[in-house]
């Protein structure tokens, strides 16, 4: 039995993945549906608007990813795993691959479900997936969820405590990056290079210019470069976490 199969079995023998899938779907689809159903006639519901609940779904995925690591430390099962497989890097790489793949699937299911329900409600041609940026708005959510899972896995490896790891990833993604913009003179420049800001830029940039977006400064890098940057930072953090796991006692 391969390490990937073992990690998949360990993950899916708990209820967490199923609950997280259900909650992520409910939040993403629910908020998208609510927006489409209550939007005034003067406001056109576009493809990007169908994903208004995507960030909330991402928080659920990050909680799942953090727990995938910290729960093993909490109950001591990680010791048995390392005794069976002394190569700790291989264990953590397999765990990260399984969790990131699950996060990708949750993101794709949530995004397309939200878009599909909104399309049925709004029933306008604006929601058709015709342009590249529209496909990125929807299909790109799975990539962002997978990247976010890497961040949470890395924090879980570094902290090894569920409450602390979950608090760190949620506070950073929801609060810290936004507060950076309040720093005088350099806040906006720093914010442009915050990882989750880059992920949002990947999902939202590239659409038709509006009076509001026309007044906004040009981002330092394009949508796809923003995704590469977001994933690269996550991979670096994951490597740091794996090195820490290898050097510390289980």
Automatic annotation (TrEMBL):
The name this protein goes by in its record: Membrane protein
Superkingdom of source: Bacteria
Keywords (A to Z) from UniProt: Membrane, Transmembrane, Transmembrane helix
Source species taxonomy: Bacteria, Bacillati, Actinomycetota, Actinomycetes, Actinopolysporales
Transmembrane segments: 52-69, 98-122, 142-159, 166-184, 221-245
Organism: Actinopolyspora erythraea
């Amino acid at each position: 039995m391969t390490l990937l199969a073992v990690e998949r079995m360990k993950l899916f023998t708990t209820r967490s993945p199923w609950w997280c899938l259900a909650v992520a779907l409910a939040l993403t689809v629910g908020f998208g549906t609510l927006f489409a159903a209550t939007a005034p006639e003067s406001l056109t519901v576009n493809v990007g608007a169908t994903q208004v609940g995507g960030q909330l779904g991402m928080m659920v995925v990050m909680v799942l990813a953090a727990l995938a690591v910290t729960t093993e430390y909490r109950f001591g099962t990680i010791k048995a795993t390392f005794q069976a497989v002394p190569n700790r890097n291989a264990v953590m790489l397999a765990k990260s691959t399984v969790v990131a793949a699950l996060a990708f699937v949750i993101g794709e299911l949530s995004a397309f479900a939200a878009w599909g329900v909104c399309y049925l409600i709004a029933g306008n041609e604006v929601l058709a997936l015709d342009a590249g940026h529209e496909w990125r708005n929807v299909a790109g959510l799975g990539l962002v969820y997978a990247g976010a899972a890497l961040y949470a896995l890395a924090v879980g490896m570094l902290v090894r405590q569920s409450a602390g790891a979950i608090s760190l990833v949620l506070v950073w993604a929801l609060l810290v990056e936004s507060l950076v913009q309040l720093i005088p003179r350099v806040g906006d420049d720093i914010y442009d290079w915050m990882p989750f800001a880059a992920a949002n830029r990947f999902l939202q940039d590239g659409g038709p210019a509006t009076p509001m977006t026309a007044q906004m400064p040009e981002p330092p890098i394009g949508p796809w470069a923003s995704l590469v940057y977001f994933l690269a930072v996550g991979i670096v953090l994951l490597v740091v976490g794996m090195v820490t796991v290898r050097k510390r006692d289980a």
